[in-house]
Amino acid sequence: MTLMRGVLLAALPLALAQVNPPGTPFPNSTYPNSTDPLTDSGAQSGETSPPSYPSPWGEGLGDWEAAYAQAHAFVSQLTLLEKVNLTTGVGWEGEKCVGNNGAIPRLGFKSLCMQDSPLGVRDTDFVSAFPAGVTIAATWDRQLFYQRGYDMGSEHRDKGVDVQLGPVVGPIGRSPEGGRNWEGFSPDPVLSGIAVAQTVKGIQAAGIMSCTKHYIGYEQEHFRQGGPTISDSISSNIDDVTMHELYLWPFADAVRAGTASVMCSYNQINNSYACQNSWTQNYLLKNELGFQGFVMTDWSGQHSGVSSALAGLDMTMPGDIGFDSGTSFWGPNLTIAVLNGTIPQWRLDDMCVRIVAAWYYVDREANQVENAPNFSSWTEDTFGYLHYYASEDYTQINYHVDVRGDHAANIRTQAAKGTVLLKNNGALPLTGKEKLTGVFGSDASENQYGPNGCSDRGCDNGTLAMGWGSGTANFPYLVTPLEAIKAEVLSNGKSIESVIDDYAYAQQNALARRISDVAGACIVFVNADAGEGYIIVDDNEGDRNNLTLWHNGDDLIRNVTSFCNNTIVVMHTVGPVLVDAWYENENVTAIIWAAIPGQESGNAITDILYGKVNPGGKNVFTWGASRGAYGTDLLYEPNNGAGAPQEDFAEGIFIDYRHFDRVGETPIYEFGFGLSYTTFAYSNLQVQTHSAPAYTPTTGQTGSAPVLGSVSNNTADYLLPDDITPLVAYIYPYLNSTSLAASSGDPQYGINYTFPAGAYDSSPQPFLAAGSKVAPGGNQALYDILFTVTATVTNTGGVAGDEVPQLYLSLGGPNDAKVVLRNFDRITIAAGASGTFTADITRRDLSNWDTDAQDW
Ligand code: NOJ
User: Fold this and answer.
1) Mean pLDDT, the chain, as a whole number?
2) Based on the domain organization, do 684 and 611 belong to the same domain?
3) Is the whole model's pTM more than 0.70, yes or no?
4) Which of 658, 677, 696 is the last residue of a domain?
5) Closest residue (by CA) to atom 1 of ligand 1?
6) Which candidate, 299, 498, 506, 832, has a CA 20 to 30 Å from the CA of 56?
7) How far apart are CA 192 and CA 825, in angstroms?
């Protein structure tokens, strides 16, 4: 791998690399002249970004054309109330999914079911628990990215879900302590981008909508929604170059892949909330990237009614301001806003078209199931309330449909292929002839409360196969390492013992000594957990407090290695941990990162340990020697009084390996590294140049904003109908008075607020230079292939194996990273045979963002 880096770098022409100004903020900021290039290359405290209006209306670009035609026809028939229903959730626990919008019964359009999570169907039974994002990323295998997406999408579909709330590329993993990094793929934007695109395509091929989240700059749990003494959410301050070259990059891939929806995040970006930030939503997402689907809030991530609508928000979830407050920024207030003209009708129409077009785009019509959704997120009882919070409509709510199909085999393969062999002094693979095998550590065994015993996996008991929070699913079973290894040992007629108490030092020592005496193998399981901030585990408020192993894992390893000279360490961790205390210990004969594997954990690690699967996974992050080695950290304490904490992404694009390269910090295990039971040699590197037309900035204008149907001005048309008894805390679109002022309940109604200039302009708008008028994903010339690199990879060892050749480029500018990953492939090669690595390099791969030109 290292050789490959060097070879390719030398071979590639650097002439195309451009120079970008040092982290230039866009455009008005307090960015000072850089004095310390290590900390001053990104945005600074108090950072702002420019307003951008009007909100771009979807035009049915590319393969969205037919869906848009259908959506226009559908939305044209709707009344104002029906349109409002599409955009607004009915309130927390109002229906059966974690989020539901209002239905349009007149036209048989059902309430849409939005359901977590990025690794399986959350809050229900008889579903699969897939490997987490970080694990599938470590396979570096496009086919597996897609397959996992398709299998997850199928399970959501068969439960009657319309929108799967995943995949995740925000957080991308700016700092390793970030609580939800494991839900996403990798801090590298290209690996993340390829993984998210394949996942989106897989999910949507199953006939449901994906929701790529969380947009954008959501890199930590602390202060994501303020705090006890802080009313505003943290502001992630990000400059324009960093935004384009790092954080926005994988979202661009998701948009290009056709993601049906995007979830705006809890945090602020440059001191404006993500769900009402016109720069990120109107300008970047909808204009520059040409996103054709809809933007949905994270749960209670909305902070304004009119402003969020004008800034590009399309759907509010779960619809109420506080859970079950019975109030909404939209719902009746959206009805009022359209009637009094503070939100133009075309903007509401655009919200609806985007939602309905996404529905057609993935062919939801043809993918309906009986009794959908056939589960309730709020209880697993068979009978219960359809409207859980209001305790109304007692009926059958769970049908316990088993949707797992044959996914277990795929899950086992994915987990094994996402396992990274970090060290091997010849100890692995195990032969099965070990006279006595010892298994150590609670991470090898069952959670005493059962695999689902802690709500949303909010504890670290037993083997770690999933982090905690909303990004979870219930395990249908969890194969522990201990039981799978035991089955293997018994099938070989040998002996196995275990000590699963992490603190039973005497017993650990005694067993380790006996194993050493008979030349057996000691397998030590350790872990490190993290999750979403609404659950605190062992004092970790979602984010990790440190990078050390949990349950004194270092002590466990020290105890076993003091006596056992063949100690194999297996780590289930959400990201990098500090291994400096023991990785060089000669009694540690092998080290494995077994990632966050999902339900087949034990089988997958046993496949690797015993050589049934030859490890081919590669690191998706860097393993540093210390916490400080990463250069970035989280903000744990407020730094702005009672105001929004300010997190300056001052390191710019230099996260993970880019930072290590920049400061010359030697990692313990580098990004992209992973061993195999065989060896590979590279030869015959070739670079083929393609002729592509020159890059041309996009010009021209959109059409004007479509207005679909008409809205009656008679407020009496919008009153709650006599035959509807409202459910408690349920959000409806109805007015409660024919007076808009009275209906708003706002004592300040009628005050002349100033709304942003341009927000009401429905006339044709210029396309952005970096945008596109033909397809989502931005200027299509970015995706022209300029070079193709090929190399021969030969398996020089004795067993078949997988290799992941990786293509790194040096863009060559003074503000560029030393190298950046641009492509890769995973190839299976028989012993003695050769395979060909082929990787395209696009124009985008060779471009920098130019803030002044607002173009690549
Ligand atoms: C909040 C989380 O941030 C988001 O990822 C999730 O989809 C929603 N809650 C719904 O559970």
Assistant:
1) 94
2) no
3) yes
4) 677
5) 299
6) 299
7) 14
